[in-house]
Amino acid sequence: MQLTENVMRYDWIGRWTHTFHAIAMLVLIFTGLVIYFRWDIMSMHNARTLHMVSVPVLILTNWFLVPYGIIVQGYAEGGVKGIITHFYNNYIFNSRDAKHLSQAIKNFFGKGEYPKFTIYDKGKGHYITRLHPLFKIFIVLEGISIFLIFLTGIVLYDVNWSIFGLPIAQWITTIFGWFAPFLNLSSLSFIRWVHLALTYFFIFELICHALILQFAPKPFNYWKTIFITGKEDFNNPVVQVIDSSKDEA
Q: CA spacing 20 to 30 A to 191: which of 67, 182, 213, 244?
């Protein structure tokens, strides 16, 4: 089944979320490496300033805009139950995703077709799922990593940082100090190590994120949809269109 009209895959909030997330992540990685390795590409003052400006942008997109988008889209699909269903279908790796991921791997080795992992329900007027199955795994890892790099970043910014009289940085240092002796490190050294390791993880994730899209048929469609038009191309071979209204009838 094909659709002739274009359907909005990402509204302006979704497109701006992707854009700000990508920019903030790239700036944070670059300036973080400049600070750590003390490259002469730019001054330490400018690197630290850009780094600190990008932190709230990343936090805003991931901890506010992403949940807001999930709630708004899910509620439109069926109230509170729709939010839960939307979150599960679009962000939780499940058996359907495992099947699609297996098909994608086989296709990479020249066996079988690329999976139709984007499923749009014409009858209900919304997506059943749209993310690449591997992205769903990365989303969980990225969420944990952003939380940890944020915590370690607080300590690296100011070991005595506090808010409303609460010694947040000292608490974080104490918690990491529980695990640091297993690596024969001090708490602060362990925090630095975790922060740098997570930076390398984000570099790896960004590379994988881009390459996964390039392996799919018509890869430019994704970049155009995510950052420019927001509209789905239903002639894309990875898209499956169903109509639940006919099944119910």
A: 67
Contacts 24+ apart (CB under 8 A), 75-82: 76/126, 77/124, 77/126
**Residue-wise pLDDT tens digits, 129-159:** 988 899 999 999 999 999 999 999 999 999 9
Q: Where are the beta strands (DSSP E) in 54-162?
A: 118-121, 126-129
223 vs 220: CA distance, rounded Å: 5
- Give the span between the Cα atoms of 194 and 217, in whole angstroms: 37
Predicted TM-score (pTM) above 0.70? yes
Nearest to 191 by CA among 171, 166, 162: 171
CA distance 16 to 14: 6
Residues 189-232: pLDDT tens digits? 999 999 999 999 999 999 988 888 778 777 788 888 888 888 88
